[in-house]
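Translate sequence into structure tokens.
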Amino acid sequence: MKKIFADIMQFRGTHYDFGFKQGQLQKDSYLVKNRENQWKVRRPRFDINVEETKQVFQTLAPLIWEELIGFQDALGWPMERILLEFGGYRVKVNPSGCSIFTGEDYLVRNYDYHPKTYDGIYSLYQPSDGGNAVIGVCQKVTGRSDGMNEKGLAMGYTFMHRKRPGDGFVCNMIGRLILELCDNVEEAVELLKEIPHRGSFSYVLFDKNSKLGSIVETSPRRVEVRQGRACTNHFKIMTEENRHVLDDSKKRLNAMEGPGAYDLNGEAAFRLLNDTEKGVFSKLYGDWAGTIHTSAYFPSELEAWYALGGDRMPEKFDFAAWLTGDDFPEKRVEGEVDTKIAFVNMEKADWFTG
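Result follows.
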């Protein structure tokens, strides 16, 4: 078993100052050094047009562009590299797993991915210059793999495939846009219909008024919406987009749709996803699909849970209290995972070695 951790980052202020602070924290970090080494063997197969990207952000989310400028000023990098690492627009998306389950006032999510991609940052940000405050898990630092905002809108996504990518935003930045710009499920659905998508993902949305999760199936070609309690890694409407091999995705979905599953309270639902013997938690770390964290969001109470690895009790965060200025004393969440693969945020983790 490998001991791992995620740093808790709490910040209140402008987007520029937030970006500058994050840039300072990452300047000499394992995360940045490892990714610099990774690009030596995994060269990007895409071009980043700085002016095009700037115009897209200026139209949709100008404050996040200010955050990127803050990163640039802190790190002293050219904007092309800032966008490659943190921009979330027209960059490559690697395959992943993930499972999401919703019930009475909760969204629970397993984040299944490769350890060499994990930021290890749990973020709370309350902007002073516009946009919703958000609690959630960082991906590519600026993006969010899952989270909840101050209005009680919760979000997580699941990967579908990388076929025929388009010119658009990638999943983690879309997660950030949803949480920062939208107040409820309806606004988030409209945003997902309007923005360009780089890859094919399902976004699961849940808010204070939800009875079921809203599952938005997206690809560069079209967007469809359905209702449901559980979501893994295949579409149910846009089936023509699905991969050919879906055995693991269907196995995890069946585990979440078993007898009595829809009667579970939030604690029991968390155990369904986090316990390693219940059929949802995955140990396929070398296949880009091992469960690294389980998170849960409770919109009515504005409470968030987070655990690293399986068979663990979650750390619980009172987001409602934090919004009033009550910072958390904790600096880090710790856990364990059953793998020897290096984690990019805490040790040397290039693509030459395990």
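Note: The chain has one domain: 2-337.
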